[in-house]
From TrEMBL:
Keywords: Metal-binding, Zinc, Zinc-finger. Residues 413-451 form the SWIM-type domain. This is SWIM zinc finger domain-containing protein. Pfam families: SWIM. PROSITE patterns: ZF_SWIM (PS50966). InterPro entries: Znf_SWIM.
């Protein structure tokens, strides 16, 4: 697995500190992006949490996910959560070490009482002493929250700069790209009150590892309750690896309701989002379609990356984003002078650099800015690299009707275009997944060839350069 070393530099460790007015939760920030450019340690908020105990429990849940490998738990993960300030809320996000669980805590305006909320994205330090202190926060404890350093703190002599050098898998960035594509296809499937949420979640197994990794389960709403079902009946939501919802146990005593989001039920396992509604905030866990599958391999972004206009459109759209909490593609299309479909493809492409997320509760995209180069996930995607190599080698021979023959070594794959324009292939990848994990490299090569032809350009070996890979799936 490709890895890069990401250095998180904090002025000091995050902590819960006692002062004359009570307890103060100081979350230290690392380098991040703001409207004025990159900042070493940005400050996003200073004020009180209106529901201290639920907020502390929810932050711990996000940290739990970041520190856990749910599939083959050989070693703990060590990633610090990402925080984005959108002007009217704070969002804390993390991925599990296996990349199969995505957690997000949205602390809304009604959950915060203090200064104006800033704009930007960075990482926050969550260390073991902080976790222990958060676990002691009671319902009657007033809790002040500071996200980022105060001016006075910068000049203190409390200790040296705290640095964490973390081996960061490329799949973590690709997970951010894939989850916004997956979640955009979700609809609300069930909403149950707190008592039923507690009953249902406490009935789930808590073990981790390989047990049940390939056993698909479904859940369906029955009035104001949730009941399991052995097959994907209409309205059902897939629940693969139910032990991966264990982090929600931390917030059950504060829950107001449970909402479940997913795509229309089908024969194949699918991802789903489980949202616990808390006072002034929402905690959401999104599960991959299988406990053994990380979001990084889902392939939902590949069609957009193979579209010729997406790169230029993404560059145009990116200058119109300003950490908006809700992005309306129709409004953005009007501002950019583009069709809505092209704006959606551009947003998907921007998601490969971690710039776009999707909020299922509001059915809207939102903007963040992670410290990754634009297109980094694109260059690290094995299927896309292989498709570029096929095109550069002249392996694609278009046929009438929109299909093509793709020569790979000593054999030929046939790519056909359906009535809806969707491409299918005769390769083993398509036979196994039927498009459920994105297009195969042969279909991608055909899409790239179409885009190059429409643009009047030619893809050569120089285009692929050092990204050319032979024998990739």
């Amino acid at each position: 697995m490709t890895q890069a070393v990401q250095t998180y530099a904090y002025l000091r460790s995050s902590a819960v500190r006692e002062n004359s007015s009570g307890r103060s939760l100081a979350l230290e920030t690392s380098g991040g992006a703001t409207p004025t450019g990159a900042a070493a340690n940005p400050r996003f908020f200073s004020g009180f949490l209106t529901a201290p105990a639920p907020a502390a429990a929810a932050l711990l849940a996000v940290a739990d996910v970041a520190a856990t490998r749910y599939y083959q738990p050989l070693r703990p993960a060590s990633l610090d959560p990402v925080v984005t300030a959108n002007g009217d809320r704070l969002r804390f996000e993390s991925f599990s070490g296996c990349c199969g669980v995505y957690a997000r805590l949205d602390v809304l305006a009604e959950g915060l009482d203090g200064d104006d909320i800033g704009h930007g994205t960075t990482n926050v330090d969550v260390n073991n002493p902080l976790r222990e202190a958060l676990g002691l926060i009671g319902a009657a404890d007033p809790l002040h929250l500071a996200v980022g350093p105060q001016a006075l703190e910068v000049t203190t002599l409390d200790g040296p700069l705290v640095e964490k050098k973390v081996p960061l898998p490329e799949r973590w960035l690709r997970g951010f790209a894939e989850t916004q594509v997956v979640a955009a296809g979700f609809d609300l499937r069930a909403e149950v009150p707190a008592a039923e949420a507690v009953r249902f979640l406490r009935s789930l197994p808590r073990g981790t590892g390989r047990a049940g990794a390939r056993t698909a389960q479904w859940v369906v709403a029955a009035g104001r309750t949730l009941r399991p079902t052995s097959r994907p009946v209409p309205g059902a939501v897939c629940l693969p690896g139910p032990e991966r919802l264990a982090a929600l146990q931390r917030v059950l005593r504060h829950a107001l309701a449970l909402r479940v989001y997913g795509p229309p039920a089908g024969p194949a396992p699918a991802a789903a989002a489980w949202e616990v509604l808390l006072p002034g905030m929402r905690l959401t866990l999104t599960l991959s379609p299988d406990a053994s599958r990380g979001f990084s391999g889902e392939g939902g972004v590949l069609d957009a990356l193979a579209t010729g206009d997406a790169a230029a459109d993404a560059e145009l759209v990116s200058v119109l984003l300003a950490w908006e909490p809700r992005i309306d593609p129709a409004e953005l299309a009007e501002q950019a002078g583009l069709p809505v479909a092209r704006v959606r493809a551009a947003l998907t492409r921007l998601g490969t650099a971690g710039q776009i997320g999707y909020d299922t509760a509001e059915a809207a995209y939102f903007h963040r800015q992670l410290p990754y180069d634009s297109g980094r996930a694109e260059t690290q995607n094995p299927r896309l690299r292989a498709a570029h190599a096929l095109v550069a080698a002249g392996a694609v021979r278009p046929e009438p009707g929109g299909g093509a023959l793709v020569s790979v070594d000593d054999h030929v794959q046939r790519v056909r275009a359906g009535a809806d324009g969707r491409l299918s292939c005769t390769c083993l990848w398509w036979a196994k997944y039927r498009g459920g994990r994105g297009p195969c490299k042969h279909a991608l090569a055909v899409s790239l060839t179409r885009s190059a032809t429409a643009a009047g350009t030619t893809v050569t070996a120089a285009t692929v350069g050092s990204q050319r890979v032979e024998g990739t799936r």
